[in-house]
Amino acid sequence: MDKSLGRKRSARDWVVDSVAFLLALLIGVILYGENDTDQIPQWLFAADFVSGIVLCLLLWFRRRWPIQLAVLAVVMTIYSETGGIAALVLTMTVAVYFRFRVSLLIAALNIVSVVLYSVVRETEDPGVLVYATAVPLYFGVVGWGAYIRSRRQLVQTLRERAERAEAVAMLEAEQGQLRAREEIAREMHDVLGHRLSLLSVHAGALAYRPDASTEEIAGAAEIIRSSAHQALQDLREVIGVLRAPVGELPQPTFGDLPVLIEGAQRAGVPVELELDAPGPLPEHVGRTAYRIVQEGLTNAMKHAPEEPVRIRVVGAPGNGLTVDVSNPAPKVRPGDQGQGLKGLRERAALVEGRLEHGRTPEGDFRLSAWLPWPS
User: Fold this and answer.
1) Disulfide: which of 84, 188, 317, 361 matches 375 by Cβ 3.0-4.6 Å?
2) 256 and 292 in contact (C-beta within 8 Å)?
3) Under a CB-based contact definition with an 8 Å cutoff, are residues 364 and 329 in contact?
4) Boundaries of each Signal transduction histidine kinase subgroup 3 dimerisation and phosphoacceptor domain copy (predicted)?
């Protein structure tokens, strides 16, 4: 049975039902007028007219009781020709809303009804009447109704698929927004964390050296001003992604690594760099290596200021890229290793690499990663 059966009648349904009622009534009255010369009792002639009008009126309720009204039409058309068109409409209604075998059964009952009609009305050639008129007419109506039913089901299926596709698209969009937010948070942590650590180092140097010369104070102040300005620029670039399409967030490259080291050295951090990575790195691998070194420098300046930092970036195509950042005895509290190192581990996993961190037997803090470098 069709799910739309019994629903509230739409404006289109009102139009269709009105046309069906008027058409069945008009043709029924015409057929009744043509049969006024038949040699049948007057009571049967009157019953034909009344039953036909009743069937036409019942067309307004065909969506509520299609099977019941179709069976009633089978009984009435045994003696009523006025209700013949209404019976056809009711048969088609069954074909529209029910399975094909149900509508075939109703059509077969109507054909039996026509045979009985030929007996009751004493027509001259019942065989020709049944096979030449009733059979193709009723089965044609059933076929038409079945076509309408299959088309409705197809439209409903396409609509449901479209709704599911829209829901999936909305879910994917929400997940994309979530990934974009996570990326923005990670970039803000990586970029601004490093810049603010440089500011902290220089500000701390000024605080602990009240006897510094005017030139030293001016130099440190200039570095602080420059770092603060660069931090604001980085912040504008990161927040700018909110106004730009996803994927346009400014990203550093592996070639920017010496600039990063130089900035830390200007801030007074003793950095030793061993760089041996001949050949072009894949972009995503190089960017991940840059972020690992950046996070290692940030943590070193934050937790172990003025301590030397050793950075080793070595590798070759086919062997992978190894990134090591170590510094002696950092003063790291348990809660200080959270989001930055978790983000690095996620970055390494995204490029199918691995990352480890922790204290060495010598007491150093070591951040080590291996990243794939295809040959």
Assistant:
1) 317
2) no
3) yes
4) 181-245
Angle at 335 between CA 334 and CA 340, to 5 degrees: 110
d(C-alpha 299, C-alpha 293), whole Å = 10
Q: Which residue has the tokens 């001016």?
A: 218
Task: Identify the H or E element spanning 356.
Answer: strand 354-359
CATH superfamily of 253-375: Histidine kinase-like ATPase, C-terminal domain (3.30.565.10)
According to DSSP, the β-strands at 271-276 and 309-316 are parallel
Tell me the three-class secondary structure of 180-206, residue by residue.
HHHHHHHHHHHHHHHHHHHHHHHHHHH
Per-residue burial over 332-358, b = 16 or more CB atoms within 10 Å of its CB, e = otherwise: eeeeebeebbebbbebbeebebebebe
232: DSSP letter? H
Distance CA 167, CA 335 (A): 40
CA distances from 249 to 181, 244, 345 (A): 11, 8, 20
Question: Residues 6 or more apart from 187 whose CB is under 8 A from it?
Answer: 238, 241, 249
Residue 47: which of 58, 32, 31 has the closest Cα? 32
Task: Give me the residue spans of the domains in the chain.
Answer: 11-166, 253-375
pLDDT (tens digit per residue) in 125-182: 555 555 667 778 888 888 888 888 888 888 888 888 877 777 776 677 666 666 766 7
CA angle, residues 29, 34, 35, in degrees to nearest 5: 95
CA distance 156 to 144: 18
